[in-house]
From TrEMBL:
One of its GO terms (molecular function) is ATP-dependent DNA damage sensor activity. One of its GO terms (biological process) is mismatch repair. InterPro entries: DNA_mismatch_repair_MutS_C, MutS, P-loop_NTPase. It comes from the Bacteria. Residues 340-525 form the DNA mismatch repair proteins mutS family domain. Keywords: ATP-binding, DNA-binding, Membrane, Nucleotide-binding, Transmembrane, Transmembrane helix. The chain crosses the membrane at residues 138-156, 162-179. This is DNA mismatch repair protein MutS. PANTHER family: DNA MISMATCH REPAIR PROTEIN, DNA MISMATCH REPAIR PROTEIN MUTS FAMILY MEMBER. It comes from Fulvivirga marina. Pfam families: MutS_V.
Amino acid sequence: MGFLNKKKRERKRLIQSFGKLKNESFNFDLIERYFRKKDNKDAFQILSDRTCSDIDFSELFMVLDRTNSKVGQQYIYDKLRIIPKVPEFAKQEKLINWFIHNQETRVSVQRKLEELGSNETYYITSLFQDEHIRPPKWYFIVPLLSLSSLISLLLLPFNPQMFLLLIGVFVINTGIHYWNKKNLYQYLGSIPQLLVLNKVACDLFKYENFKIINTELPKALKVIDEIKIRMSFFKLEARLDGDLGTALWAVMEFVKTVFILEPLLLFGALEKLDTRRDAIEEVFRFVGEIDAMISIASLRSGLLQYCTPEVHEQEKYIKGKGVYHPLLPSCVRNDIEIDGKSILLTGSNMSGKTSFIRTIGINLITGLTINTCFASQFSLSQMRIFSAIRISDDLLNDKSYYFEEVLAIKAMIKESQEQEPCLFLLDEIYKGTNTVERISAGKAVLSALSSGNNIVFVSTHDIELADFLKDEYQLFHFSEVVENNTVDFDYKLKEGKLKMRNAIRILQINGYPDQVVLEAIELSKQLDEVSCIYQE
């Protein structure tokens, strides 16, 4: 009865949590392990750490991730950081829709996946990505010492003097046994979890729908099963440390010391595992793909609105309706259409420029990686994404804000000359230098970045920059309403450049002295006149 009640509670919990955010902490050092060491040379693009920082990728991941296992969590993190050359969205959509419409089966699969919910599961990747510990040069004496212990025990009833040999060998074996402990502890988590992974994968492969992921999976499962007995020792070791009493542990420890079983089993298992790396990763990816598809199904079920994007080959074209930022509660939705030109945004601080730039970047990333956009409609082409939004001084390397920005944009210019189209996201270009050079350099750089099939989304406070680029860029702006001593933002994207300036007015309503406000107004008029002459 208790088991049945527990099963009902688990079923209810999984049903209620579907479509909702996770209520747990995120250890990104462990989540990123698979991505950081994976060979992604065949990817269309690997998202850089800079771009991920600029779009708040960690916070985005915590919203997108609805996986049930640590394997799935590592797998979908990698999926979101890699834009593939040839996505398999048709195959994935079949699984996503199947999970959405088959609740009971989904819950059953989720329960299986939760068997891989331990933090030790994160370390499975080390078994096929990391170099294994190699035995020392003197390791050849270990089998001999183990055999000496066995022979001494067998001959002891016939020759009491063998006890002295047994004691001598035992002392040496004890030293080797405890020397090996630090090696053993590195694998006490990963190897037992590999056994769990293999079992879960075997159970999941019984579902006919999952065979489209990898029809050859049984071969990989069999390869791992061949060393199951060797690996079972590590599972027993982990259990003894956690569950069984001190007396039983002491007996087992004594036996393992006498025959130095731990180094024999450890290095024997590692030698076998080293030849089975591809099979282990194959099983890892199979389980990760299933969990990732459930995660996407859960994400979509929890959204008020989403769409699967239309990916086309039309150059320099992006169209979105009702586009919104998934991290902003009650986010104002906007429409955008880019056809042959890039986008330049003007507007005051806090009006929504940078958030909109991030919104576009996020939608392209999720559209090209998990076939999901936060919009009622979204059309895009496959392109690489680069950004320079959140730049700061590098004090440790004695680099100023401006110099850091110069290097970041230099890298963008180089990427813009490659064959693949790019989307460049920039916020307040060259704000670390003076006005004249900022506008001059900004115009030249933005013209270069927008050449070819590249698209640029850039924000600026410099109205003059908008005037210089009006033939190459579509101009849009965000604005606010200042009245009755209040500032209200509507966060709606509007065509054209910003015409109304409210910065000085905002100073006034915030109680700045009259003489400061009046002088600022007078100087702004003079600067406008100079600007007009300069443009002529």
